[in-house]
Structures are given as C-alpha cells and as structure tokens.
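To the wet lab folks,

You asked to see what we're planning to order before we commit. Fair enough. Below is the target structure as tokens, and below that is the sequence we designed to fit it. If anything looks off to you, flag it before the synthesis order goes out.
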C-alpha cells in the first residue's frame, strides 16, 4: 500500500467511537485521492495492529466503508478502494463512466474500420473507399415481390422466432451451393448469421482465447483483423503476394508458436483481389492437419470472379479444420445481413451456443426472403450478369490509375472482387494523404489499417464496385492531386506546419 495511515492521534477519551474516526479518515483519504481507486487497504490484522484496536473493530471499519460504497472486498484477495467513490450529487458521465468501463483502446484498424462507414459520401465527394456494389444492381424489385409473398402466405410465421441455426429451408439452399462449391455437404454444417461479419466474429469467439497466437493475411479485410484483435489473441500477419498467403513465412511462424487459427480468403482476397494458388492451398491444408490449427476461409468475394469460373473452396479438402464463412452481401445487398458459417465437429456446436447468446438468430423475415430468392434460381443468373460489369469497371479503374498515378504506385490486376490494392513506390504519410484527399473531394482506405503490424510502406485500397467509369476516373484524378499536395508539403516542412 502506498498510502501511510497516520493513526497515532485517534481520540480514545472523547465521545466519538474509534470506528467512526477510522471510517472518516479512510473516507477523507479516498475523497482527496491519497488513496487511489483500486488501491489495496491493509489487512484487518495489520489495521488492528497499527491503530491499536481489536480485530473486530477493524473488521467493522471496513464493513462500514463497504456499506457506504467506498471499498469493496474480494474473497481471498483483500479490501480495495472502489473505482468510483459515492457521489453527493450529479456527476459528469465522462468521469464516472470512464472509471467503471473496462479498458478499450481501438487500434488504428478499428478506427479506420469505423470511419470507413462514415467517410464523407455526400454529393461532390467521390468515394473510392466504399466496397459495396452499386445499389442499382441489387434485385430490389424481385426481393420486394418475394417479401410481399412471404408475408401474405406465411401469416405471422416469418415474423416468429427461429432456431438459432437458421431457417431449415435456407440452410438447405445454402448447403446445396456448398455441395457444388465444396464448402459443405449437409445443411447440418450450416449456421445462418447476420452477415459474414458476424460469422467471422462467432468463429473468433468460438475458437480463440485471450493470449492465443493467430495468423492472418497482411493486408486483409479490416473486419477479420478487428475480430482477431478483439478476441485478445496475439495477431501475427503473413504477407500476401500474387499467389496469396506466403506459406513459407507461415511455416516460420509455426516453428516458433503454437498457432490456433489462420485466417485467409482463398479466393479473390480483399484487398488484393488475388487467389491463394493451388500449391500453396495444398501446403496450408497439410500444415493445418499436421499442426492441428483451424483455417478460417472467408469466401465473400470468391463468387465475384471476373471469369465466372468458381474454384472449389478449401473446406472441400479438410472439412474438420476449415471453417468457411460467406454471405449474400456483395451480390444482393449487405443491408439484408444474410451470411453463414460452415463447420463440423465440436466447433460447430459451439457456434450455435455463441450465436444464441449473441442475437438469438438472424432476422426471420430476411431468412425467408433469402430462401425464396435462392430457390428461384435467379441468384446464379444475377452473378453471371453482373460479374463481367465488375471486370469492366476494374479495367477502367486500372487505366485511370496508370494515367494519373502511374509514377506513384504499383498495382496488379485482381482476378475478382471489388478492389484495387495500390502500393506506393515511395513512402507517404497515409493519414495526411487521407485528410488531403477528403479536401480534394475523394476518399480511399489507408493501407496500413489492413495490416496486422504497421509497415514502413504506404498503400491504399480503392474500390470500383459502386461508381461509374467517369466517376472512377475523376476520383483517381483527385487522388493524384492530393498525393502531389502531400509530397509538396513534405518537401517543404515549413508548409506542413502551416497546414
Ligand atoms: C472479405 C470480407 N469478408 C466479410 C465481409 C463482411 O460481409 P457482410 O457484409 O456479409 O458482413 C466483408 C465486407 O466488406 C469483406 O470484405
């Protein structure tokens, strides 16, 4: 204990009891901050000795302080000053809430993830940050008709509670696609989630304990990074190149750590848009089997392939090790929040429990709508119709990058997805660039937010899914202007201080 109690001058002759005097002294010390929140008080035996009182009186002093809300006792550990002393009147919510809330320090990735939903998208701003498709391609008329039918024919059923695993007919539809693509064999393996985002989070909460070592691609989808970080694990990033995850680098990590989970996107990775090569996929699965770790394979963009030829998912080869997540968000609308996870073995049961404790189940109405939409066969026709359009926008954006930013960045053509991953040839301050870009009327996602560990090189993700070709070009032109402004300021430090 850092606080030295002065108990030499207790009045033992007067009318006030020694208990009341000691309680008052402790209260004054807590109120003045001399005894800090969380500080441990002397044991009752030590207090009895210091104050020359009997043990029962010392016990009574602490009991009174606890009743008045000043201290709290933890069995076997002792008595501690409470995080917030009792208040006489109103208290500033920032003060008391900050004292009682558990610590939460959002990482740079978390901040950018939140900001990515809030980055300016008003008229006049070209948003190259938004990864979601042009809403005009969503089958809103068909979904509207289906929703009306579901409500008219189903009575109250589509508004009733469901099994946490999801609507059986929808799980069957998903499993049918799973049999074709290799991510599942039966509907039992499927749990319907509120988007792939929740699926990722449920997987992390089911598999990862604080202190575990987990691995992810670096760069990766910020949501994967956030869920891994929030699980309290140590997150180690493995670089990705044209063939996806660098499996040699993974092997070096496996030689040093017991890894619990490796998170990948084996098809059309966000943000690079590249696939994990078949040879590397094979090695990753061999390692998962040998070393008993889970592989989380996120296939959200795997159906958005420009050539329309779908590769079998990793789970096909090693279903007990690979947990697959996916959703309808990138094809018929993220606002529907229909996603799923495919898993087997004990982890499958755990996912149901954690889903139940999280939000009971995903919206019944949207599950009914999604089921009828998939059963109609329109979904695959929509993919066939829209994927070539993405390829067209992607090529247009690549041409704009070459035209306006060719000297500044390197870029590779993705095989699918909605994004381009640009790496700067020379370092640049990403935060300064984002602020300047917003001033110039364009937004993007800064690359370091997608890395497991910040790197010296700067990068950015720009997306082509939402905007028309002319808007994409205008966005890159503005981005180039912002880059020039930041470089100009960096070359004249006096100017940077003024900005
Ligand atoms: C790779 C990846 N996985 C998962 C998600 C989340 O998808 P959903 O909207 O279905 O939650 C996204 C969203 O951008 C993503 O890019």
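Sequence we intend to order:
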């Amino acid at each position: 204990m850092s606080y030295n109690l002065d108990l030499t001058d207790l009045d033992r002759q007067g009318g006030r009891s020694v208990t009341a005097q000691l309680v008052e002294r402790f209260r004054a010390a807590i109120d003045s901050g001399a005894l800090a929140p969380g500080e441990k008080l002397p044991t009752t035996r030590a207090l009895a000795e210091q104050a020359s009182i009997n043990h029962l009186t010392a016990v009574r002093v602490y009991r009174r302080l606890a009743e008045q809300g000043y201290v709290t006792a933890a069995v076997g550990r002792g008595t501690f000053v409470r995080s917030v002393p009792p208040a006489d009147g109103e208290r500033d919510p920032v003060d008391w809430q900050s004292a009682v809330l558990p610590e939460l320090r959002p990482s740079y990735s978390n901040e950018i993830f939140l900001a990515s939903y809030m980055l300016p998208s008003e008229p006049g701003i070209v948003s190259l940050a938004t990864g979601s498709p042009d809403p005009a391609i969503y089958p809103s008329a068909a979904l509207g008709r289906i929703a009306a039918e579901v409500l008219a024919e189903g009575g109250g059923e589509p508004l009733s509670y469901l099994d946490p695993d999801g609507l059986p007919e929808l799980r069957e539809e998903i499993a049918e696609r799973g049999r074709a693509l290799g991510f599942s064999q039966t509907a039992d393996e499927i749990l319907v989630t509120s988007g792939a985002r929740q699926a990722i989070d449920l997987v992390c909460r089911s598999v990862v304990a604080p202190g575990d070592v987990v691995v992810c691609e670096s760069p990766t989808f910020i949501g994967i990074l956030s869920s891994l970080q929030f699980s309290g694990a140590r997150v180690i990033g493995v670089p990705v190149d044209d063939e996806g995850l660098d499996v040699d680098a993974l092997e070096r990590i496996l030689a040093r750590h017991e890894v619990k989970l490796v998170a990948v996107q084996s098809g059309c990775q966000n943000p690079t848009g590249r696939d994990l090569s078949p040879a590397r996929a094979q090695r990753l699965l061999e390692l998962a089997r040998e070393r008993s770790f889970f592989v989380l394979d996120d296939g959200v963009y795997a159906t958005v392939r420009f050539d329309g030829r779908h590769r079998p998912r990793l789970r096909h080869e090693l279903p007990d090790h690979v947990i697959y997540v996916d959703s309808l968000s990138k094809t018929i609308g993220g606002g529907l929040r229909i996603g799923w996870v495919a898993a087997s073995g004990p982890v499958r049961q755990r996912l149901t429990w954690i889903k139940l404790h999280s939000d009971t189940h995903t919206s019944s109405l949207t599950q009914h709508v999604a089921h009828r939409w998939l059963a109609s066969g329109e979904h695959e026709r929509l993919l066939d119709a829209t994927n070539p359009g993405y390829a067209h926008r992607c090529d247009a954006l690549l041409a704009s990058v070459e035209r306006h930013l060719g000297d500044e960045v390197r870029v590779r053509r993705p095989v699918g997805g909605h994004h381009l991953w640009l790496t700067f040839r020379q370092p640049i301050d990403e935060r300064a660039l984002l602020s300047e870009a917003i001033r110039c009327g364009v937004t993007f996602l800064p690359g370091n937010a997608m890395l497991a560990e910040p790197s010296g090189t700067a990068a950015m993700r720009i997306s082509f899914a939402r905007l028309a070709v002319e808007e994409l070009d205008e966005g890159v032109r503005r981005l180039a202007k912002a880059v020039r402004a930041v470089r100009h300021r960096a070359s004249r430090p006096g100017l940077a201080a003024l900005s």
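Structural context that might help your review: The pocket of pyridoxal-5'-phosphate is lined by residues 131, 195-197, 221, 223, 265, 270, 298, 300-301, 327, 329, 334, 339 (CB under 6 Å). The chain is about 45% helix and 15% strand.

Thanks,
Computational group
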